[in-house]
Write a structure and sequence with these properties.
homodimer; mainly alpha; Arc Repressor Mutant, subunit A; Tetracycline Repressor, domain 2; 74% helix; globular; DNA-binding
DNA sequence: CTAACGTTTGTCCATCCGGTCAAAAAATCG
DNA sequence: CGATTTTTTGACCGGATGGACAAACGTTAG
């Protein structure tokens, strides 16, 4: 798990402070991007001095890397849970809902990821081509099997997955735009419930197998 | 159109050089964001010295502003063309195709916009709340009328528009990720045709009016 | 208590970056 | 051509920024 040279055991204070730093850095990186974020900002947000922060992470990039590695794991969890055994439409609906919940509950993580991809993914290209690709290949095969069995409409499983990513993450990444158009969160159950209902309908009807 | 103080007529060289600068700046801003882009990079990409560039645009932000204003107009054009008179499903299919074509042909513009929104849209918030909002309100009303008339399935027109934005722009903004998953553009008609077919099917089936 | 180790801070530095300025070089115009 | 205006450039500046360092401070175990 740790990457230190001589495998020093991590101190209580170290784990704690590193956690605080990562939390603060998530705030800063997700709203300003890697280049736009400054160590001073992160230190300020973490309530410590810059040299002190640099004692826990030697370089700015180390913080970013730690953040992204922690992120990718949880980020792909909803897709991992897509179960070949279950009912296809129920599984996909569940996947959409879980992704939407992540966009609602972890918007900063979504933006951090979006920022990284937008700028060409210089720091995570390798992870995309290995971990991400193999997971998507696996799940696309599952979806394709469902299609072959006539349980959902035949279409391109990869683009189906892309569209689910796009539509759900949109509510985190483009939140400002959504709010500008819809105005401040209207009463009732809230914007996310509206989005969930819309997406559910779109995908369930759009993927219903044809007579 | 121009914003110069004493309305000096623009020189031939000025129009030309400003064009070159904007083109170069689009490259740089779209891949690094506003903060991440440097004037030197833009000058380098435009093959001129920094002071020379600053002779045409006094501040870095001026370049960005010019770029975004030019962008927003063409960016919303596809939505403007959504015609109340036409057949609803045909109109929406056409809208999706036009948006997808823009993502294919103008990915830098898409990323420039995405970058700006991601970072909280500090420079275009006002435009979003006026121009964008009023156009979306107008077209959402058109779509709602179609729904009321039973010509397409009843659902939330705003989230429908958002989902079209999300799915189409995804192919420009997350291009790196798409390529990492699908591998280098596979033979045949290309990735965009696959995406177009998928989205067309999803939306046409998903919005087909019920019984 | 004290030695060893972990933590925190003030100071400092080199580089980058946005932007200025004056002077040289083109271009334009009469 | 010569005068005036536009364009281009090299040198420079002040502030921000990533990071180094050593000294001071705290903690802990023998």
């Amino acid at each position: 798990m740790t990457t230190m040279a001589k495998a020093r055991p991590r101190t209580r204070i170290q784990t704690q402070k590193r956690g605080i730093i990562l939390e603060a850095a998530l705030d800063v990186f997700s709203t300003h991007g890697f280049r736009g974020a400054t160590i001073d900002q992160i230190a300020e947000a973490a309530s410590m001095s810059k040299p002190n922060l640099l004692y826990y992470f030697r370089r700015k990039e180390d913080i970013h890397t730690a953040l992204i590695q922690r992120l990718l794991d949880t980020w792909l969890q909803p897709l991992r849970e897509l179960d070949e055994i279950g009912d296809p439409l129920t599984e996909l609906r569940g996947y959409i809902r879980r992704k939407l919940e992540m966009a609602r509950d972890y918007p900063r993580e979504s933006r951090l990821f979006a920022n990284e991809i937008l700028q060409g993914a210089p720091r995570i290209m390798e992870l995309l081509e290995t971990d991400l690709k193999s997971l998507v290949d696996e799940k696309a095969a599952v979806i394709r099997a469902w299609m072959k069995a006539g349980r959902i409409a035949k279409t391109d499983p990869y683009h189906l997955i892309f569209s689910i990513w796009a539509t759900t993450q949109h509510y985190a990444d483009f939140d400002v735009q959504v709010r500008a158009v819809l105005g401040p969160d209207r009463g009732g159950e809230g914007r996310f419930e509206d989005a969930a209902r819309f997406l559910e309908q779109l995908y369930v009807e759009g993927l219903r197998p044809k007579g």
